[in-house]
Write a structure and sequence with these properties.
The complex is a heterodimer of chains A (115) and B (119). Chain A is 0% helix and 50% strand. Chain A contains no helices and 12 strands. In chain A, strands 2, 5, 6, 10, 11 and 12 form a 6-stranded mixed sheet that branches. Chain B has 119 residues and is mostly beta strands. Chain B has strands at residues 5-7, 10-13, 19-24, 31-37, 43-50, 53-57, 65-68, 75-79, 88-95, 109-110, 114-118. In chain B, strand 7 (65-68) and strand 8 form a beta hairpin. The radius of gyration of chain B is 14 Å and the shape is globular. The chains are: A mainly beta (115), B mainly beta (119). Chain A binds chain B through residues 4, 32, 36, 41-46, 49, 51, 90, 92, 94, 100-108, and chain B through 3-4, 9, 33, 35, 40-45, 48, 56, 91, 93, 98-100, 104-113.
């Protein structure tokens, strides 16, 4: 079964600073990979996804993520954080072939942005 | 922009009581899901629903849970006899398809959640 680890429960950055949120997954083959964001009072919104091809994926709101097969990682990055980026971020993995397409989520990383 | 809505936003209930959580999926979507997140833990899949029947469910989704699409718009999760450990945020989601075709994975759109507190 697949699993996702987000090692950082909280991350605090200053507005304008760069950001990297870590995600490691465990799965027997290359899965589909996702990052979701949840702002307070809102549902989970898909930021970006990786299926195949270019390992650097661009998403909404200026986010990008890089799939590194050798490290089983899919870290989320943003070059300059805005105060509105403060939210909970979830990494998720789903099998890329056969069976269930239901994503397995990590525990989430809470991003705090200081002015 | 169409969105998934959920009611109520908060529900407080006594242990042993029945609760019904309601969701209105996006209107042209065919697949519906429930997830839950216990405070401080992962978002966990409960059940998926298509064509008026359950298509997949997790180990969590035992006999105390049921889902229904009572009319053309609502999708409900019923917990028959709530336990303290059912306290969690419950998310509804919907997608156009299940993503099981050769085409790209079908994005699930999530609602804002219902926070259930069992006392």
């Amino acid at each position: 079964a697949q699993s996702v680890t987000q090692p950082d429960i909280h991350i605090t950055v200053s507005e304008g600073a760069s950001l990297e949120l870590r995600c490691n997954y465990s799965y027997g083959a290359t899965p589909y990979l996702f990052w979701y964001v949840q702002s307070p009072g809102q549902g989970l919104q898909l930021l970006l996804k990786y299926f195949s091809g270019d390992t650097l994926v661009q998403g909404i709101k200026g986010f990008e993520a890089e799939f590194k097969r050798s490290q089983s990682s899919f870290n989320l990055r943003k070059p300059s954080v805005h105060w509105s980026d403060a939210a909970e971020y979830f990494c998720a993995v789903a099998p890329a072939s056969g069976g269930s397409y239901i994503p397995t989520f990590g525990r989430g990383t809470s991003l705090i942005v200081h002015p | 922009e169409p969105e998934v809505t959920q009611t109520p936003s908060h529900q407080v209930t006594q242990m042993g009581q029945e609760v019904i959580l309601r969701c209105v999926p996006i209107s042209n979507h065919l697949y519906f899901y429930w997830y839950r997140q216990i405070l401080g833990q992962k978002v966990e899949f409960l059940v998926s629903f298509y064509n008026n029947e359950i298509s997949e469910k997790s180990e969590i989704f035992d006999d105390q849970f049921s889902v229904e699409r009572p009319d053309g718009s609502n999708f409900t999760l019923k917990i028959r006899s709530t336990k303290l450990e059912d306290s969690a945020m419950y998310f509804c989601a919907s997608s156009v398809t299940s993503g099981s075709q050769q085409s790209t994975y079908n994005e699930q759109f999530f609602g804002p959640g219902t926070r259930l507190t069992v006392l």
